[in-house]
Write a structure and sequence with these properties.
This protein is of the alpha/beta class.
Length: 504
């Protein structure tokens, strides 16, 4: 059986995912076989495993920190919001269906068997399991039937450490209030507290640490500084999505859709010196970019209507007419086509005219495509010629099927499809300066991101022969090591090991 420790938070975005990843890396460095686990994740950033199952991106990041292959058992339930009142419910990596918040709340305890089956599989394979909670354990209206915070801690018989964010203020009140609202048996599970995102002189904070320990009768096991370790963020809480006003040599604007999904697709472009990657949500912010990217979304039709209403669609069409490079990924690719049809009410229902920039039509179906693919770019004679015949790899997660007009040109040639009987085929579309495909992670390979920027430089008449890109895998590894160093320096790891071993 694995030893287990659980990281809960006083709020969303307190740093649970961050601390979980850091502990995974430390335990790995100390010679343990460690895995992350989150029973229920609500996120629009998702990932397809090698077995073709869908899971939350945060647990993928944590698995990378642990040095292991992500598997769906690390996140048995994934909720992908479709609107303010409901989500697509994914259980064991497969779509169960769409549910309103009320419907899911009524039936979520039925998933305990799925949760424990996944957990028990990890329990047999690993030395340590680091569980991440969700939101706050002190939501008193949700505590009965909880399956992700104290409810999960009870199922796994796990000790708990609570993380609080000092950067937003009120850290002592949030810690004291959280502990106060727990039941007595839940309070007994809390073995320590971590204050996260601290800036300033620790000496000034120390009197408060002693007072909060006396108030809660729980020890503070560390204070983590506000840090800029670069690891994948979770969903729309990410600081990456905050609009950047600075424009570099090559300016790329990403449309910040209301239901933006898998925005980690764009991180590789952001890493390239001389490139500014700006997330924008208004015409005023758009400016005159060299490239516009419409990313993935959980609701293509609703987000297209949002762009239509706020004027962004019209502005993108004007940019396309001026030969600006336009690139759509997944839902963004669907928007660029001529028509969208939703006969089964998968998203919005009915039909909707697309942006008309690509000669494609999309029909939304009940069956979700979930697969990993690889192949190469087709010969490209227009703006991004440097991409021609370059290999790529990535994954697909979508409900729609897109067909090209007879005279349309495909963007990609797919030659390897995991866990599918489907044969090699052409995919995506390109028409002059407009590009689109379903592939997430399309820019992850250094050759691809470099070729995009190289082509944009050439188009702009800029000499940029020595574009400095780098190996993303190696970069991520260095960031996880930095995270582990920061955790070791600022947390009492001896105390944490005692908590893990149930010595206190």
């Amino acid at each position: 059986m694995a030893k287990v420790i659980m990281i809960q938070g006083t709020t969303s975005n307190a740093g649970k995912s961050f601390v979980t990843a850091g502990l995974c890396r430390v335990f790995k460095q100390d010679g343990y076989k460690v895995t992350p686990f989150k029973s229920q994740n609500m996120a629009l950033n998702s990932y397809i495993t090698k077995n073709g199952f869908e899971m939350g991106r945060a647990q993928v990041m944590q698995a990378e920190a642990a040095g292991i292959e992500p598997t769906v058992e690390m996140n048995p339930i994934l909720l992908k919001p479709t609107n303010d009142m409901g989500s697509q419910v994914i259980v064991n990596g497969e779509v169960l269906g769409n549910m309103s918040a009320k419907e899911y709340f009524k039936c979520k305890t039925k998933f305990k068997d799925d949760i424990m089956k996944a957990y028990n599989k990890l329990d047999k394979e690993y030395d340590i399991i680091v569980i991440e909670g969700a939101g706050s354990p002190a939501e008193i209206n949700l505590k009965e039937n909880d399956i992700v915070n104290m409810g999960m801690a009870k199922m796994a018989d796990s000790p708990v450490i609570i993380v609080a964010d000092i950067d937003r203020g009120g850290v002592f009140a949030s810690l004291a209030g959280t502990v106060m609202l727990l039941d007595e048996d839940e309070k007994d599970r809390v073995k320590g507290m971590i204050i996260n995102k601290f800036r300033g002189d620790i000496k000034i904070l120390e009197p408060g640490l002693k007072m909060i320990e006396n108030i809660t009768n729980k020890p503070v096991v560390g204070v983590l500084p506000y840090t800029h370790v670069d690891i994948d963020d979770e969903d729309s809480l990410s600081d990456r999505l905050n609009a950047k006003s600075t424009v570099d040599m090559i300016d790329i604007a990403v449309i910040r859709l209301p239901r933006i999904a898998n925005f980690t697709d764009l991180n590789p472009l952001e890493y390239i010196p001389g490139v500014s990657l700006r997330y924008i949500k208004s015409v005023r912010e758009l400016g005159n970019p060299d490239m516009i990217i419409i990313p993935g979304t959980k609701n293509t039709m609703e987000d297209l209507l949002w762009m239509r209403e706020n004027g962004l669609e019209a502005s993108i069409l004007k940019c396309a007419a001026k030969d600006t490079v336009i690139w759509g990924i997944c839902g963004g690719y669907q928007m660029l086509g001529e028509m969208l049809f939703d006969p089964y009410n998968v998203e919005h229902g009915g039909e909707l005219k697309g942006m008309g920039l690509l000669p494609t039509k999309t029909v939304f179906e009940n069956q979700k495509t979930r697969t990993r693919v690889s192949g190469k770019f087709e010969n490209i004679s227009s703006n991004l010629t440097a991409l021609s015949n370059i290999p790529f790899e990535g994954y697909e997660i979508h409900m729609g099927k897109t067909t090209l007009a007879d005279n349309a040109k495909s963007l990609l040639s797919i030659d390897k499809i995991l866990n599918s009987s489907e044969n090699s085929h052409l995919d995506g579309a390109v028409k002059e300066n407009v590009f689109g495909s379903y592939i997430h992670g399309i820019f992850d390979r250094e050759e691809v991101s470099k070729a995009v920027v190289e082509s944009l430089c050439k188009k702009k008449g800029i000499e940029y022969d020595n574009i400095k890109t780098f190996d993303i895998v190696s970069y991520k590894e260095s960031q996880y090591d930095l995270l582990a160093d920061m955790v070791r320096k600022n947390l009492d790891m001896n105390q944490i090991y005692k908590i893990l071993n149930k010595e206190i």
